[in-house]
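HOLO CASE FILE
Compound: zinc ion
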Amino acid sequence: MIKKKCSSCGTWNDGSSSTCSACDELLDLRKKEYERLKKLGKLPIEAKEHILFEIKPEYPVWRKTVLYIIRPVYWLFVIVSGFFLWLAAWVSA
Ligand SMILES: [Zn+2]
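Model generated. Tokens follow.
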């Protein structure tokens, strides 16, 4: 049977439990980090571009078409502007 050691008080807990039986500390470190960031309000903000350019199957055809056209243009813009930023940094150096 898998046992988990509490990172806070050192008590060994059942592997299936998510919190320490002695001190209620979260045993899953990833979950703990997530909770910590959530408390601080620093949860990673999902990239808005992905939501913006997400093509969902339920979208009407016109919207899908528009997204299919916009997406490469957007990425091209990102790449070109990135290149110019690099160029500007390189020139000024
Ligand atoms: Zn504990």
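CASE NOTES: Residues 61-92 form the longest helix (32 residues). The chain has a mean pLDDT of 83.
CLOSED: yes
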